[in-house]
Amino acid sequence: MRMEVHLHADIPILEGVSRKRIEEALMPLLEYLDAEGLADVKSLEQDEPGLRFDDKELMLVLCWTGEIGRSFHAALDSALENLGPLCYEAVEVELTLYLQNGEQDSRLLFVGPTAQAIHEAQRRCMVEDVSVLLARQFDKARVGEVTALVNRFFDEDWKNRAAQPAKPERAFETATRPSRKHLH
Predict the structure, then answer these.
(1) What is the model's pTM?
(2) Domain-wise residue ranges, the chain
(3) CA-CA distance, 57 to 11, in Å (whole number)?
(4) Torsion 47-53-54-59 (CA) sign
(5) 27, burial (CB in 10 Å: exposed 0-12, middle 13-18, buried 19+)
């Protein structure tokens, strides 16, 4: 069963990393999309750049809509894991699945150089989301109370992870989140 997806991120890349090295990291995804390189990945939406590396800004831009099958997620996960060590900092990658019944399923993937950098990006994203949501109803002081609690949860989570037996470090993480509409 094929479905349509939208992939969106601006991923800062370390200085000195070449387009070729980025394409090698993204090879599982490029092979899945039957593309030789970034320039071959075209979006179904005309106004979207697809996958593009801006070597002046050192930014990998993902703004692509396409049709996918079952093995897409494994290819994307492998590509992001390979890409992690090439990232300047951890950022979110938004994946929106457009389901047959007209609904959307949005997921956040995080890619970055280290597990701790990813954890901090997840924290930033959560604090931002909670703050925006609560600011609709409550004043800054009340929002600050909740964001302080979220920060405490993230601190405790990191300490708990550190206390557990070492696992291989992953260069990406996944989370589910309510849909955010893209305005392109």
Answers:
(1) 0.82
(2) 3-113+169-176, 116-163
(3) 10
(4) positive
(5) middle
Radius of gyration of the chain (CA): 18
Burial of 43 (0-12, 13-18, 19+ CB in 10 A): middle
Specify the amino acid at residue 126.
M
Query: Tokens 């037996």 correspond to what residue?
Result: 165
pLDDT at 37 over 90: yes
- Of the candidates 28, 171, 170, 24, the residue with the CA atom closest to the CA atom of residue 90: 171
Question: Over the stretch 43-76, which tens digit does the pLDDT of each residue have?
Answer: 999 999 999 999 999 999 999 999 998 899 999 9
For residue 166, the tally of other CB atoms under 10 A from its CB is: 7
Which residues are within 8 A (CB) of 117 and not within 5 positions of it... i.e. 6 or more apart?
Answer: 87, 89, 90
The encoded tokens of residue 145 equal 């109370």
Q: What is the pLDDT of residue 10?
A: 97
Going from the C-alpha of 173 to that of each of 43, 80, 138, the distances in angstroms are 24, 9, 31
Half-sphere exposure of 40 (CA within 13 A, CB side): 12
Contact predicate 157/150, CB 8 Å? no
User: 10 Å Cβ neighbour count for 81?
Assistant: 15
